[in-house]
């Protein structure tokens, strides 16, 4: 019997690796992305190409105007995306790039589509090591949402199986995620992680997401195959 799964796909390194993992486990993947008012909306172009390249059964891009609330440097042009922060700064506090309730909202949409598909599996590429400041990337949050999903849906209450939220990257470092993806044939040149790319979609190389990504490739003894605005941070080219 075919296993269906809904997967949250941003077009970034983590979600693309998660897509490859879900496929390797034999799931028919239904990918879900959001145009939520993010300044880095070039990721949606990447997500569409990645979904097609890795054989998603269907890919939906839904509009949600989280920019109407603001409160995040990713959705509010009045706020500046932090650049060139060190590892110490990135490991403390909730950064201004946190989008209020984003993963709660995204998972709720994924849960709704999964119910229509009768899919009992949802994949999300959250990571608690590199983004420990994001409250909606923690194992405690995922566990709580999974419990809620099984109480809040008709198919969760009446079905023969429990709904499972899969987080295969949650305890991995960025370097380990890259190793995992390379083993599954992921083409990271197709992914984009930057919070503040230029109009051509080239990564800035200085925001938290870029710094963590570059560090992950560096720790694997590799150059990042992604497209960056020249020059890259020293030692990372």
Structural class: alpha/beta
What count of helical segments does DSSP give?
Answer: 8
User: If you consult CATH, what is the topology?
Assistant: Rossmann fold
Given the C-alpha coordinates, what overall shape results?
globular
Share in helix: 25-40%
Name the CATH superfamily classification. Answer: HUPs
Q: What is the string of SSEs from the N terminus onward?
A: EHEHEHHEHHEHH
Quick check: average pLDDT?
92
Total discrete domains: 1
Could you tell me the radius of gyration in angstroms?
Answer: 17 Å
Instruction: Tell how many strands the DSSP assignment holds.
Output: 5
Question: What gap, in angstroms, lies between the N and C termini?
Answer: 46 Å
- Within the largest sheet, what's the order of strands? 3-2-1-4-5
CATH architecture: 3-Layer(aba) Sandwich
Which class in CATH terms? Alpha Beta
Largest sheet: 5 strands, parallel
Q: Beta-strand level of the residues, as a percent range?
A: 5-15%
Low-confidence region ranges: none
Architecture overview:
The protein is 36% helix and 11% strand. With 237 residues, it is α/β, with parallel strands linked by helices. The protein has one domain (3-188): 3-Layer(aba) Sandwich (Rossmann fold). It has a 5-stranded parallel beta sheet, with helices on both faces. Helix 1 (13-24) crosses helix 7 (174-183) and helix 7 packs across helix 8 (208-219). It is globular, with a radius of gyration of 17 Å. The model has no long low-confidence stretch (mean pLDDT 92).
């Amino acid at each position: 019997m075919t296993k269906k799964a809904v997967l949250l796909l941003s077009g970034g390194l983590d979600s693309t690796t998660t897509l490859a993992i879900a496929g390797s486990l034999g799931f028919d993947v239904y990918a879900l992305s959001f145009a939520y008012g993010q300044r880095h909306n070039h990721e949606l172009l990447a997500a569409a190409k990645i979904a097609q390249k890795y054989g998603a059964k269907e890919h939906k891009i839904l509009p949600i105007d989280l920019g109407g609330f603001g409160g995040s440097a990713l959705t509010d042009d009045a706020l500046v995306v932090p650049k060139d922060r060190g590892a110490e700064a990135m490991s403390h506090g909730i950064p201004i790039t946190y989008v209020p309730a984003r993963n709660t909202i995204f998972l709720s949409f994924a849960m709704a589509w999964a119910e229509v598909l009768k899919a009992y599996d949802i994949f999300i590429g959250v990571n608690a090591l590199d983004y420990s400041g994001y409250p909606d990337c923690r194992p405690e949050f995922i566990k709580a949402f999974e419990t809620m999903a099984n109480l809040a849906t008709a198919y969760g209450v009446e079905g023969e199986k429990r709904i499972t939220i899969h987080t295969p990257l949650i305890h991995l470092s960025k370097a380990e995620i890259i190793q995992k993806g390379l083993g599954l044939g992921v083409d990271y040149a197709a992914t984009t992680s930057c919070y503040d790319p230029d109009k051509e979609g080239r990564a800035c190389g200085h925001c938290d997401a870029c710094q963590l990504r570059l560090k992950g490739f560096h720790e694997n003894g590799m150059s990042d195959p992604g497209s960056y605005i020249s020059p890259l941070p020293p030692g990372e080219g």
